[in-house]
Structures are given as structure tokens and as C-alpha cells.
Amino acid sequence: MADGGYRTKQKAEILDLIGEKGDYHFTAADIAEMLRKKGSGTGMSTVYRMLDKLTEEGTLRRYVIDGSSAACYQIAMADQNACRHHFHLKCLNCGSLFHVDCELIDKLTDHIATDHGFTVDHSKTVLYGYCEKCRTAENSDKGDLQ
Amino acid sequence: MADGGYRTKQKAEILDLIGEKGDYHFTAADIAEMLRKKGSGTGMSTVYRMLDKLTEEGTLRRYVIDGSSAACYQIAMADQNACRHHFHLKCLNCGSLFHVDCELIDKLTDHIATDHGFTVDHSKTVLYGYCEKCRTAENSDKGDLQ
DNA sequence: TTGCGTGCAAAGGTTTTGCATGGCA
DNA sequence: TGCCATGCAAAACCTTTGCACGCAA
Questions:
Q1: Which pLDDT tens digits describe chain A residue by residue (146 residues)?
Q2: Of A13, A79, B77, B94, which one's alpha carbon is 20 to 30 angstroms from that of A119?
Q3: B10: Cβ under 7 Å from strand C?
Q4: Residue A112 and residue A120: Cα distance in Å, rounded?
Q5: What values do phi and psi take at A128, rounded to 5?
Q6: How many CB pairs (< 8 A) connect A and B?
Q7: Residues B66-91: pLDDT tens digits?
């Protein structure tokens, strides 16, 4: 952890929880709640300050998913290349977020860059649609729960 | 305007201002300020309610650009059918929205549906990144101006 | 000891909601 | 006349900030 500052209990706890999340995304509130459940007295502002710092350092990545008000964080993959094959699918019905590794996205990215002169940033991009479970339900029930 | 409700002065004013923005994006606060400058007494909640409704109708598209706190809106020009083979590319730097027709999107869509069990809705999906003009600028100037 | 890190509470900004009133059809 | 639309203010939310205290180095 490229963390220049002091080593504190709170930092360790937060980093631990982030590690637990692994490849999965989380919000500041998620971390705060997990801390609370663990009996830690760590406050909201500390969580935000840590997440901010880690994001600036490049350890985390921050993104805002359309529709939700709170920002999501996720461990940043080591380098750009690792992230190139990674994209996010969000179900408009149940709200699930899927992480998919796929080489086809690479082709698409290259094509867009080459033929359309646009560099796609997959860390900021989310594909919206309907997951398998909700695919059928979509037709009958149009109630949006984002 | 596929607006099922009543025709009111406020609606007309807001739609007018949105029209003035043309292809360009704006926030709720932008609209509110423009209204204020025009001497309109239209309130914030009315603006939000209109933007919400127009977004639901598909007339507008809503984005949350990473880093900024307020949501952006922009006229969604094309209809569902036209958008099927259609990418939306939004530049994170200059805010331009590009519409790109490309057969590769079909391959990607099919692949995701078949192999990942997820139906992508392209009318709701925007790929974020940097356009040709901003691509070089991004490297030299890392200061985010969203 | 130095000064970063933390906790609490308050402030800030954006968006939503409740409720009474106003205006369109 | 019915019912949607509006305005205002308050609330809800997420996030940031100020300040005093605690703790790592």
C-alpha cells in the first residue's frame, strides 16, 4: 500500500474490508456499515478520507453509476491492460452489477479507437440492460427500481 | 413532445431552454439559472420534475459525470429503433456526445446475450472516454475539467 | 515532540417530497 | 369540475470541512 502516512488501526481495518470485497464494488456506506458490525467506532469522515486518498493514489477507482446517488469504489486493477478486458453490466430492473472479463471488448475498443477516433474508458463505462433473471420480467413489469 | 400532461407556461419555458442548448449538455441548475435570468418564477422542483419526466419519456438522457456532483442532461436525439445499431460515445473532457453506427455492436450484443446471459439496452448505454480532440490534451493535462 | 489521523458535528450541495394552491382541459 | 402542475419549504442524501484531541513515529 503506497500510503505515506502513519499506520493506524482504522486504516488497517478499512484496507482489510476493501480487501474482502475483492473484485467487487462498494460504497462508502458499505464500508461504514461493515465497520459498525465489527464493532469499530470508525467514523464516516475517516472512511471518506481514506477512500479519497486511496483513489488519488490509484489504489481504488471511483465511479458513479447512473441512477444511484452514492459513489462506488472498487480496487483498481494493477495496470490498464488488465482492465481492458473488463466491463460492467448493470441490470436496469434488479440493479445487479456484473463484472465481465471478455476479449471481445478489446476488439470493440480497438475498433472504436481506430475507426471512430474515440478512446473508450472502460473504468467509467457501464453497459445497461437486463440480466437473465429479469429479462422476461421486463416485458410484463415495467416498474423501474433502477 | 410526447408529454401526456397539461400544457403549462413553465413546461414551455423549460422545453424552450432545453432546445436552445441544442446538442449540448446541461444541469438542472443551469436551467434554473436561465429561467431566473429570464425573470421566470419557476422553481427548482418544477425543473427537476420536468427533467425527470422527460428523461423517463426518453426525450432527455441523464448522465452523472465522474467527479462532478450534479447530474447532466442532454437531448436524446434518436429513437429506439435508430439506436439499435448505435453507440453513444460521450467525451469526458469536452462533453460532446457522438452517435456511431457500427455493425460490431451487434456482435458484442449477441455475444453478451449468448455467453453472459445479459441483454444490453443500447438506448440507455453510453460509452465514456475521450474524443480525438481531447485525447492528446488528456495526457498532458491531467487536471480534471470533466 | 511533531504533526498526521480521527471523531464528532455542522455545513454544503443536489435532489426529492409534502402540502396547499393554481391552472389546464 | 377534476386532476395535473406548481411553489415553497423542509427533508433526505451523500460528501466535505472545522476543530480539538489522540496517537504514530
A1: 445 689 999 999 999 999 998 878 899 999 999 999 999 989 999 999 999 999 998 888 888 877 778 998 988 765 555 555 677 888 776 767 787 878 888 888 888 899 888 998 877 788 888 888 887 654 444 443 33
A2: B77
A3: no
A4: 8
A5: -100, 150
A6: 100
A7: 777 899 998 886 555 555 567 788 88
Contact in structure between A72 and A62 (CB atoms under 8 Å): yes
Binary contact (B119, A127; C-beta < 8 A): no
Give the model confidence (pLDDT) of B104-140 as tens digits.
888 888 888 888 889 888 777 888 888 888 876 545 4
For residues B132 and A117, the answer to whether their CB atoms sit within 8 Å is yes
- From chain A, pick out residues whose CB is under 8 angstroms from the CB of B65: 64
**Angle between the N-to-C axes of helices A28-37 and A9-21, in degrees from 0 to 180, rounded to the nearest 10:** 110
Nucleotide nearest to B32 (CA to C1'): C14
Q: How far is residue A32's CA from residue B129's CA, in Å, rounded to a whole number?
A: 31
Nearest to B116 by CA among A31, A41, A98: A98
Please tell me which of the candidates A102, A104, A118 has its beta carbon nearest to residue B98: A118
Cβ atoms of residues A98 and A88 within 8 Å: yes
Per-residue 3-state assignment (H helix, E strand, C coil) for B81-135: CCCCCEEEEEECCCCCEEEEECCHHHHHHHHHHHHHCEEECCCCCEEEEEEHHHH
The answer, for A60 touching chain B at a CB cutoff of 8 Å, is: no
Question: What is the pTM for the complete model shown?
Answer: 0.78
Chain A CB contacts of B126 below 8 Å: 125
